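U., I forgot to send this yesterday:
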Amino acid sequence: MLRPSIFDENLFDDWFNFPDFGDLDRAERKLYGRHADRLMKTDVHEHKDHYEVDIDLPGFKKEEIGLELNDGYLMISATKGLDQEEKEKGKLIRQERYSGSMQRSYYVGREISEEDIKATFHHGVLSLQIPKKDTAKLPEKKQILIEG
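Result:
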């Protein structure tokens, strides 16, 4: 049914002036603003013998990125703008580029070691090559017969 364009998406919200709680998810986050959930966007491609992982880290330098493998989890952390040298640029009037640290972890398996993972960083994209390792197969389920 067509309705006049004077109404928004919901006819009753306009008539009864119901409160709109849709803005609650737009609350500004302390680190990287409202769109912090969009950081470290990751693409994972599967090949026959390895996985290719591409992670967007725009604005970071190679020295500001850390990779750590612990108990089968690959932890990627990035930190920028926490040094005091930037305060020498003058009085800050407005800041839209947030500084701080962020991290994300990925489970790669306990069979993977640090030497197996190849990492490159070029044009703000961290590229990882993680080999596929054969996991130890669990024994096949066998039914135990009850005598008697």
